[in-house]
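Could someone model NAI with this protein?
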Amino acid sequence: MKDNYDLVVIGGGPGGYEAAIRGAQLGMSVACIEKRVHKGEPALGGTCLNVGCIPSKALLDSSHRFEATQHELADHGINTSDVNIDISKMLERKDAIVKQLTAGVAGLLKGNKVDWLQGWGTLEDGTGNDKKVTFTPLDGSEAKSITAKSVILAAGSVPIDIPVAKTDGEYIVDSTGALEFSEVPKRLGVIGAGVIGLELGSVWRRLGAEVVVYEAMPSFLAAADKDIAKESQKLLKKQGLDIRVDTKVNNAEVKDGQVVVTADKGGEISEETFDKLIVCVGRRAYSEKLLGENSGIQLTDRGLVDVDDQCKTNLDGVYAIGDLVRGPMLAHKAMEEGMMAVERIHGEKAQVNYDTIISVIYTAPEIAWVGLTEEQAIEQGHEVKTGSFGLAANGRALAQGEGNGLVKVVADAKTDRLLGMHMVGVGAGDIVHQGMIAMEFVSSIEDLQLMTFAHPTVSEAVHEAALSADGRAIHAIQRKKRK
Ligand code: FAD
Ligand code: NAI
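Reply:
Sure, complex below.
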């Protein structure tokens, strides 16, 4: 390590390591400070690679295959019997994928000549030209002072704790604990029907757990378009996820190796017993040990680092990105912000388009959207037109045994401009990128109508949804006035 760098990045998650690599590509001397130890070894990749996006998707894939093998193959005439799953093998597979990716990131930093400093970084003073950072190594050796022309804060987030259900790492766990159950709980409780609750609840349900999900809000998936939320709720319920909206957990305690949960739905109190309980009620920015007393950095009243649209903090040359700042807590948002921050430091005019950040929930089928929901578009004063198309009439989806779900497009009725695309259905997480690209190019509904989509593909449902916005879908009876 050196005493002085052009750029010091604190945090080696997707936001931080991408920023570090981009900085090196632009010719800066860069250090990336990361204190994470995963399964006994220092690890890059942050929440995303170690305990978030990647391990959860590995388990979603294993559990999906298990369920499909048991319940979906018979329709194809493929007979299977005595299907069983070795949970320890499934977890080993997940761990191997994580290891491959985190080692890959270490290789990328090395190959780009970024110094990975294994330990804690603290911004002591972010004012002036030489920012002061303390590096406290993980190996217990003496803390060192380094200076940097620019600093990027990328410390990410951690799960929110709630006093009524304190995690103990064994019976009551957060998302990290829920990736490590060594056997399938017979009964699993989940607090929070958000992204983690639905994804990890689905994993353990598919493997055989009886799953109850408690959601405090009166509506399911309040952030999604209401038609998509309604269809998703119906499909997840059919799969056996017992989602209880408008239900608040008052207390959760461990008695005789079981978790007893007391919940309140409009004054009606219920008590249920589970083998495990997952608490996933959101995450909070993680700024402990990140900022010294005289760092000069302003926080918001919610504890986020306060930044402008370009991720600049109140101090020149200090940027903050990812889960530590406003906006959705998503890996791709963190990555784009990391690149924008570095390019800004380098004097370029990079800008993230926050209007086209995609959301994906990796249930089966996937739930995904980009842009405005119908409700948001109306609230923002648009005269709105929408079109939707159900996958039950899409040949490819049916051929794959995936005829559930729909695509919906939201547009401005006066200008015809596409404002949002929403989908629940097979491949939604990929297909919705068509909406993102269309929105980036300021496309109209007519543009989507005039394009030729390959047949048979699930993407044809996007075409039909756009046609249906003007009463012109072919494979659905149209009640709307035709254009
Ligand atoms: P992080 O990934 O949290 O990285 C920050 C790093 O900084 C951490 O490794 C931390 O150890 C380190 N750090 C903190 N303070 C210091 C310090 N003072 N000194 C040194 N190092 C420090 N997002 C998606 O887009 N798609 C998904 O499918 C998805 N799935 C998820 C599943 C789960 C179960 C969870 C929990 C999250 C998931 N997310 C997903 C969210 C995603 O993981 C985060 O949005 C993303 O990791 C944020 O990136 P980041 O770089 O801002 O922070
Ligand atoms: P979330 O914000 O998605 O959902 C939390 C849910 O818990 C909300 O529906 C909320 O109303 C509910 N809730 C809050 N307090 C409650 C209480 N006391 N009792 C009952 N319900 C309560 O947060 P989650 O699922 O913890 O995920 C954290 C973050 O991680 C998300 O912001 C998400 O962006 C990210 N993530 C993204 C994934 C993806 O992109 N596929 C996957 C997993 C996580």
